[in-house]
Design goal:
The complex is a heterotetramer of chains A (292), B (602), C (232) and D (402). Chain A is mainly alpha-helical. Chain A has one domain (2-278): ABC transporter involved in vitamin B12 uptake, BtuC (Orthogonal Bundle). Chain A contains eleven helices and two strands. Helix content of chain B is 58%, strand content 12%. The radius of gyration of chain B is 29 Å and the shape is elongated. Chain D has 14 helices and twelve strands. Chain D has a five-stranded parallel β-sheet, with helices on both faces. Chain D has a four-stranded parallel β-sheet with strand order 7-6-8-9, with helices on both faces. The chains are: A mainly alpha (292), B alpha/beta (602), C alpha/beta (232), D alpha/beta (402). Chains in contact: A-B, A-C, A-D, B-C, B-D. The interface between A and B is large, with 40 and 39 residues.
Chain lengths: 292, 602, 232, 402
């Protein structure tokens, strides 16, 4: 049945795009897990990562770029948290969320003003002939991005579950007053959480640059799917973000292939709507305990 | 009366004034004023939903699109007159708001923002795919035809849009400054404090969504002829985000904030023409600065500069009350005590009620009776389960097992909203008054006449003829006089001292002539001398109105003075019940307060 | 003098919960802060460790002015609080809670877990279960261990007896007495006079935000006027 | 190097902003609108922000380059050109910009440097305002009909002319394709081109096997490429922006469609297209509205590149683009019209001079001008300046106009 190979090809296309959505969602979930705020400027950080990757690759080898860019974007995100958002934190949650929306727009417009060009191209890391398995084409780029998403989420899970910093962030998320009594300073933990989220956004930008091109529009193109993937995963679970992204990618590509391309956008939002209505805690809810 | 009318009509007058002044300027400036007025109305309608309702609304563009496309299509295909088409567009928008509000009832914060963004995206995709809307290439809009005359010149459009926006401004201003707006402010400050006085929070949210979306759609309809081509891009997500900035920059608490924010921010690109490339950046940075340093927006800046004198007390001729006469003269108290004449039989029966949180059993098979007309106290150390039991009684916490009956009727658990109508009201440990509202407005809400239709109707009618308003305000003033806050009718509640705030809560709780008053730690944080005054007030109310009272309290001296029945609770169970003097003497009670050794020495 | 509090005032909006409290704690001493509910005990101690903002007044710890310091810095200096309702991390296991608590030790070397499990054998059995699933008594033990593991110089306990059945209280206060002998200065906030008298020698009585009496605890227990003030 | 260019631009705009009110007062007594003894005021607008900012900045810089060159060589009949460029993309902004330039700044001629729905809305206004206007970018029919005496169209032919030229190129392919698949964006410009192209392809007896749509800004085209590969076309037409076509062609290279010939719309004829699309773009065809592609060695093109860099500094990636080139050329067309209209620069006279302009090219104005556009001709019933489109193909990784 020739349609099976086609179906598999669509699914693989969906996995490739889904892996990018997962990468974008993980950083969003990290920041939300520790600070209970959703960073609407996350898409702008991903775009910054892509631009930093484009300029970095002009002077540095891949290995250095994939190391330095996430750190640089992380520092920017941490700086924004301690500089702009810390004073806002005293205000109510409402204005913090809104300020991240306009922060994202400010970053995108700043980049559009400083670097006027239309779209920049970044050549993929793994170059070469794609593998053909039962005439289903598996390009190296798909594998590279899939691997990237897996390693990024592995790093995020390791840091969160094993490292002291991760424990501090989980403690702050679970009970801020109790965490402070254990010597974790709110400002330090929030700064680290935003640095870590920003670094993951930078990494997502690097992986998204070759397939999606480097342009200011990358910000919105990654923010909405990242949010939907995070909601599918349950917004507090890193594994959920990884799987949520893949699921979203596949569902989107299938609906575009078999229904109509306009449906792709609509399906993303229908999925989000359904998740919010029927499973707000997401498919992979973090272990929740009713505290006494 | 006059100053209330003026305050409600002022925004519309301002719009009419601007339009008239606009007639003198050049046609380009007139065009800019039209766009600014429409943006102002968009900001003003968002004040209701974003400012008062605290909803992060990202579907403003979609609502505008519904209004613009619906009105244009009705004019094209069904030959509707322009104003009627705008009205129909508004209705479609209101329906859109209604659809958006149903799921929005369950979400808060960023999830709610995402629900509105979902609506925005689906609406824009829907409009582009619908046949007859010209898709992404846009749809041409014919100039306005009214009374056989075709509008061409800018000044004609300026007058038309000026009149329509003035009307919309009046609607929004009346709602925002009237009973409806007050109720929204109350909900925003304290949801439990509103639920307890019969405010249906879910319904208010849905109606606010519908009204705001209806106005946004009408504004979209007004904009359509001025931009000649309708395309989905004009009403895209960027339009929603920019519109969200209008109430934030202008000031979220009043219709003026929306008008000023919308007007100025829509003129900004014209002023920034020389710096065109940077205008989006400047806009975003400006909003962040306002959120960071002027949370109150331009309004707060103006208020701080002009430091408007505190609101003058209202000079309405209300019948003069003297608190002494109220208590002595039976004729005036007649109207007060008519409803709650003391009847025999138990006012409150708690049978075998249990509640547990995870592994902790907070209330363990409690059975308790409160006689009608009594002042029944419940004491016990921290963590004894008093508050959990109180929340079960006041309908905020459904019990795991057991039954609560009021005056013989069985009680539907959890329906706190129905309590006011059934003559049961409460006060709160951490005073849950409506800070931004005046004392009179706080107590008026206590009356419980808070169903949605009534509050909308009185928002429009009160400033002019206000028949209902007089009776409500009269009984509210009576209640304020009863608790000794007669001179503070128009002071903002948040500026009162704690003692006065407690009095205000009591006034709010008694204005609806309840049969049973539940008091949650009325003395917490109260100074010694204030305690005596509140004690006297509560005793008076119980004696004069035959008002049964059930209270939980830590201050044992106060409990011994006021209560005629006392129960003691420890570790989820009632361990003593009866007259206060002998209950305190029981060894079991002294042990839980002073510990084992002490009773041995006794 | 390891802890000094001068003219401490705490205000929530129009409510002044603590109206100018002054006292100090000597090295190795145990002081009980007594008073009826709503007297302002919790507000006082939470203001001292910085969890809630102070309106006026200053606090000195080992001579350093910690009035403006963050609660996390104060905890790392060695002044740790066991909060009134324990404030544990529900999705942390007992073991992980203790590992997280070592973070407050900063330069001091934290206590080994074995010592904690010795103090509270019940916790040893439950070391892998989630804090949210522990009973009331076990949660209180874990909360105390969390504050203890960083070897604090002053331990503040805010109503350890609250919400616990009387059976558990005896063994709990035995452990607190043992902790006292390790040389840790204690500030015990308690509503129950008898339990407090088992550990503290000196006590302060707080009523409606003001210190109304201070002196040896035995006199406080028998003195009728103090008990009435207590009831005030 | 970029920051300096920005500060320079910033200071120049501030200067314009401040002097404007002063300048306006002096205009009141001019006998014709926008004309004084020493200056002719020309207004223009286009998108400087947002996703299509490359169109607006192309128009602005191209027009400024020509104006500067004309002014340095004595201007038009002794008068210098003063250009005011306003940022606008959406309908509301475009009408506001057009009204400001026409009614407040009182410019003599207005140039539409934008192709979006904004330009259509402004066109609607200009038709009633009557000011001589020059649409140099927009292809959509909405600007062209209903026909207006005061609106002229420059180097960009109409969507129908484009479509006809595409059909000719597609038919000219050897072997002649019989089955064609189309991938088209769901936004304004591609939809307009599709409406013009589809009937002509069917008329030419070519079977359209599949028409696949995609969303603006899409990056992944698996969903579109698959049904197309199943329909076994001889050639694929891609209507949309180069950032989308390049990615689609690159991804097609990794599927069974590799090696199949492609036909792309005008928006894909940019330097970055072959780079992003990679080897599979070799042989991709389109039609081009200018005589040369930027990278071609011919003298006018190289002179233009040199002059552009001299005035605007080292270009960002992708600049100068085709809008820069046609804006430069069309400014010379306006200069020729104004020179021909002589001293009486009333709207009526300008329009008459414009309609009598035949076979005009920049070098007619002065030898220093570079002939980088096709000659343009107008008449009282035909306001379309250029109708000529030549085939262009990707050879050895770059576009080559034949």
């Amino acid at each position: 049945m020739i349609y099976l190979t086609e179906f598999l090809q669509v699914v693989i296309g969906g996995v490739k795009i889904g892996a990018i959505y997962s990468l974008a969602a993980i950083g969003l979930v990290v920041i939300h897990k520790a600070t209970k705020t959703v960073n609407f400027a996350h898409g702008a950080f991903i775009m910054l990562g892509a631009y930093a990757g484009y300029f970095g690759l002009k002077f540095l080898p891949y290995s250095l770029v994939y190391l330095l860019v996430p750190i640089a974007i992380g520092l920017i995100a941490g700086g924004i948290e301690s500089g702009v958002l810390r004073s806002l934190r005293r205000a109510d949650h409402f204005s913090v969320v809104i300020s991240t929306v306009f922060l994202g727009i400010a970053i995108v417009e700043l980049v559009r003003v400083v670097y006027e060009s239309e779209m920049l191209s970044v050549s993929p890391v793994l170059v070469g002939r794609p593998w053909i398995i039962a005439d289903v084409v598996l390009s190296r780029e798909t594998i590279w991005i899939g691997l990237g998403a897996l390693t990024a989420s592995a790093i995020a899970v390791y840091v969160f579950m094993r490292l002291a910093i991760g424990r501090g962030m989980r403690a702050m998320a679970s009970n801020p007053r109790g965490a402070q009594l254990c010597g974790y300073s709110v400002d330090w933990i929030y700064g680290i959480a935003w640095f870590f989220g920003g670094a993951l956004a930078g990494l997502a930008g690097l992986f998204a640059a070759p397939p999606m091109g480097v342009s200011p529009e990358l910000a919105l193109a990654t923010l909405v799917p990242a949010f939907v993937a995070a909601v599918i995963g349950g917004f507090d679970s890193l594994i959920g973000a990884l799987l949520g992204g893949i699921i979203l990618g596949i569902v989107e590509t299938l609906s575009a292939a078999y229904i109509s391309s306009a449906m792709k956008g609509a399906v993303t939002f229908m999925l989000l709507f359904a998740m919010l209505l029927f499973r707000p805690e997401g498919l992979f809810p973090e272990v929740k305990r009713r505290s006494a | 009366m006059l100053s209330r009318v003026l305050r409600v009509v002022a925004p519309s007058l301002a719009i009419v004034l601007i339009s008239l002044v606009g007639l003198l300027c050049g046609t380009y400036v007139q065009y800019v004023i039209c766009i600014a007025l429409i943006a102002g109305i968009t900001g003003a309608s968002l004040v209701l939903l974003v400012g008062l309702g605290r909803v992060i609304m990202l579907a403003t563009g979609a609502m505008g699109a519904i209004g613009a496309y619906t009105s244009t299509l009705f004019i094209e295909h069904f030959r509707f007159p322009y104003l009627l088409a705008i009205g129909v567009g508004g209705l479609f928008g209101a329906f859109g708001g209604f659809l958006l509000a149903i799921p929005a009832g369950r979400f808060r914060g960023h999830n709610l923002a995402m629900v509105t963004l979902v609506f925005q995206a689906i609406a824009v995709i829907g409009i582009r795919e619908l046949p007859g809307t010209g898709g992404s290439e846009g749809m041409r809009v014919r100039p306005v035809q009214m009374f056989g005359h075709q509008f061409n010149a800018d000044y004609e459009y300026l007058l038309l849009i000026g009149a329509c926006t003035a009307l919309l401004a009046f609607i929004i201003s009346a709602l925002q400054q009237g009973r409806f707006g007050n109720t929204l402010k109350a909900i925003a400050v304290t949801e439990i404090g509103s639920e307890a006085f019969g405010i249906n929070i879910g319904l208010y949210r849905i109606v606010t969504f519908a009204i705001t979306s209806g106005c946004l759609a009408a504004a979209g309809g007004l904009l359509a002829p001025r931009i000649r081509i309708l395309d989905p891009e004009t009403f895209g997500i960027l339009a929603s985000v920019n519109a969200l900035a209008y109430p934030i920059v202008g000031g979220m608490t009043s219709v003026w904030g929306g008008l000023i924010g919308g007007g100025l921010l829509s003129i900004l690109p014209e002023v920034l023409r020389p710096l065109a490339e940077y205008k989006a950046l400047i806009f975003a940075v400006l909003v962040i600065l306002v959120i960071g340093f002027f949370p109150g927006g331009i309004l707060e800046m103006l208020a701080r500069i002009v430091s408007i004198a505190r609101r003058k007390p209202d000079l309405q001729p209300l019948p003069k009350f003297n608190s002494r006469t109220i208590l002595v003269d039976s004729s005036t108290t007649q109207s007060l005590s008519g409803v709650s004449a003391p009847r025999h039989g138990p006012a409150l029966e708690i049978s075998d009620v249990s509640v547990s949180f995870g592994s902790l059993r907070a209330v363990d098979h409690v059975t308790l009776g409160v006689e009608s007309g009594a002042i029944h106290g419940l004491i016990g150390p921290n963590g004894a389960g008093k508050t959990s039991l109180f929340n079960v009684i006041s309908g905020f916490l459904p019990p795991d097992e057991g039954q609560v009956r009021f005056f013989g009727e069985s009680h539907i658990p959890g329906a706190a909203r129905t309590y006011v109508a059934r003559g049961i009201t409460r006060t709160f440990q951490h005073v849950a008054i409506y800070g931004p509202l005046s004392c009179l407005e706080n107590v008026a809400i206590g009356l419980g006449h808070n169903d949605i239709i009534q509050s909308i109707r009185s928002s429009f009618v009160d400033p002019f003829r206000d028949p209902g308003g007089i009776r409500d305000r009269q009984s509210a003033a009576e209640a304020l006089a009863l608790v000794g806050l007669d001179g503070r009718r128009h002071t903002t509640a948040s500026t009162l001292s704690l003692g006065d705030q407690r009095r205000l809560e009591i006034a709010r709780a008694i204005v609806s002539r309840p049969r049973l008053l539940l008091l949650d730690e009325p003395m917490s944080g109260i100074s010694l001398d204030e305690e005596q005054k509140l004690l006297a007030l509560l005793q008076d109310l119980n004696a004069r109105l035959g008002l049964t009272m059930f209270l939980i309290e830590h201050n044992i001296r106060f409990v011994l003075d006021i209560c005629n029945r006392l129960s003691v609770m420890s570790a989820g169970q009632i361990i003593a019940d009866g007259a206060p003097k002998d209950v305190i003497a029981q060894p079991g009670v002294r042990r839980i307060y002073f510990g084992e050794r002490e009773s041995a020495l006794q | 003098m390891i802890l000094q509090v001068k003219e401490l005032q705490v205000r929530y909006g129009s409510v002044t919960a603590v109206k100018g409290v002054t006292f100090d704690v000597q090295e190795g001493e145990c002081i009980a802060l007594l008073g009826a509910n709503g007297a302002g005990k919790t507000s006082t101690v939470e203001a001292i460790v910085g969890l809630i903002p102070k309106s006026t007044g200053s606090v000195f710890f080992e001579g350093i002015d910690i009035s403006a310091k963050q609660p996390s810095t104060i905890a790392r200096l060695g002044l740790s609080l066991v909060p009134q309702w324990r404030e544990l991390f529900p999705n942390f296991t007992v073991a992980e809670t203790l590992v997280a608590a070592r973070n407050a030790a900063s330069r001091r070397d934290p206590m080994p877990e074995s010592y904690i499990y010795e103090l509270f054998p019940q916790l040893a059995e439950r070391s892998n279960s989630f804090a949210g699933n522990l009973s009331g008594g076990e949660q209180q033990m874990l909360a105390i261990s969390r504050a203890l593991i960083a070897r604090p110089k002053v331990l503040v306990l805010d109503e350890p007896s609250a919400g616990l059945a009387s059976g558990i209280l005896d063994s709990l206060f035995e452990v607190i007495k043992k902790i006292r002998c390790e040389g840790v200065s204690l500030l015990l906030v308690e509503q129950n006079l008898e339990l407090a008298s088992r550990i503290a020698q000196h006590c302060l009585v707080l009523s409606v935000g003001r210190l109304t009496w201070s002196g040896p605890i035995d006199r406080a227990i028998h003195d009728e006027s103090i008990r009435n003030a207590y009831f005030a | 190097m970029r920051i300096k260019a920005h500060l320079q631009k910033l200071s120049r705009w501030l200067a314009v902003g401040l002097t404007l009110p002063v300048f306006m007062s002096g205009l009141a007594n001019a006998q014709q609108q926008g004309v004084t003894e020493s200056e002719i005021l020309i207004g223009a607008f286009g998108p400087l922000t947002g996703p299509v900012s490359w169109v607006g900045s192309g128009s602005r810089d191209g027009l400024a380059l020509a104006a500067d060159e004309i002014n340095r060589n004595g201007g038009i009949n002794g008068r210098k050109i003063r250009l005011i460029f306003e940022d606008a993309v959406k309908p509301a902004e475009s009408i506001a910009a057009a009204k400001k330039l026409t009614e407040q700044d009182k410019v003599a001629v207005l140039i539409l440097g934008s192709g979006s729905t904004g330009a259509e809305a402004a066109g609607d206004y200009l038709r009633s305002a009557g000011i001589p206007s020059f649409n140099i970018v927009g292809v959509t029919p909405k600007i062209r009909d209903p026909f207006a005496r005061n609106i002229f169209h420059g180097a960009s032919p109409s969507a129908d002319t484009f479509a006809q030229s595409w059909v000719d190129v597609i038919l000219g392919q050897t072997p002649k394709p019989k089955k064609v698949a189309i991938i088209v964006g769901s936004y304004a410009l591609p939809q307009a081109s599709l409406k013009a192209l589809e009937p002509r392809l069917q008329a030419a007896g070519i079977e359209i096997t599949r028409t696949e749509r995609y969303e603006q800004g899409d990056k992944d085209f698996t969903a579109q490429l698959l049904p197309i590969s199943r329909s076994k076309p001889d050639l694929i037409v891609f209507l949309g922006h180069y950032t989308e076509s390049a990615l689609a062609i690159k991804q097609a290279g990794e599927t069974s469609l590799a090696g199949l010939p492609w036909f792309v719309g005008a928006e894909s004829i940019v330097r970055a297209f072959p780079k992003i699309a990679g080897p599979n773009a070799e042989g991709a065809r389109s039609t081009w509205l200018l005589p040369y592609f930027y990278t071609q060695p011919e003298k006018p093109m190289q002179d233009f590149n040199r002059k552009w860099t001299a005035l605007h500094g080292t270009p960002a990636e992708g600049r100068p683009n085709y809008v820069d080139v046609l804006a430069y050329g069309d400014m010379y067309i306006v200069a020729l019209v104004l020179r021909k209209a002589g001293n009486d620069l009333s709207w009526k006279n300008i329009i008459e001079a414009w309609e009598s302009l035949k076979d005009a090219k920049p070098s007619d104005f002065g030898p220093y001008a570079s002939d980088v556009i096709f000659p343009e001709g107008f008449s009282s019933t035909d306001h379309q300046g250029n109708k000529k489109l030549i085939p262009i193909v990707v050879k050895d990784g770059d576009w080559k106009a034949r």
